[in-house]
Design brief:
single chain, 202 residues, alpha/beta, 7-stranded mixed beta sheet, two-stranded antiparallel sheet, 6 helices, 35% helix, globular, binds glycinamide ribonucleotide, phosphoribosylglycinamide formyltransferase activity
Length: 202
Amino acid sequence: FSRIAVFASGTGSNFAALAKAQEEGRLGGGRIELLVSDRPEAPVAKRAEEAGIPSLLLRPKEFASRKEYEEQIVEELRRREIGLIVLAGYMRLITPVLLEPYAGRIVNIHPSLLPAFAGKDAIGQALEYGVKLTGVTVHFVDGGMDTGPVIAQRAVAVEDGDTADTLAQRIHEVEYELYPEVVAAFAAGRVTLEGRVATIRA
Ligand code: GAR
């Protein structure tokens, strides 16, 4: 699983954290070979360019169907012999076109302790609910919205007076640390799954 494609739609700060980890030799044997983005104008595309990582920028709207959009991605992933897909703020559901060939080899990061606050704006959802503890989850991707087996979680306390910005900042810091660690373990084949229970072996 050492050849990695990162999928991202937006700012790309997690993409940058992964690229930095790779540069510093913290991604195990993992190598980011490709950025895939559904928003060619997103800042993440620029970050890939700066990091010298090739990108595949496709607008889903320019395809006849979601299926054809993903088929094009799969073709490119095959061509580059990608073994692991890392979603980092990729804001769309993955369909069986991608899920089937990459079963058990797609991971995502989500800014809450799943199964709490799945879907969009998890940080806003946590603040509105009033929880005192939220965090970050890295999980396998299945056909649902943030429903796949959990690989790793880290808690972040909600502090009095937190705003979406201040809480997001602390959550992001945890993401930048946790995601490279999990991706490194995955790339090294140290993540196993039994039923719904994932384990990172030492
Ligand atoms: C991250 O906080 C990630 O956890 C979240 O989007 C952000 C992307 O930021 N993902 C989701 O909410 C997925 N449901 P980034 O583009 O700066 O890495």
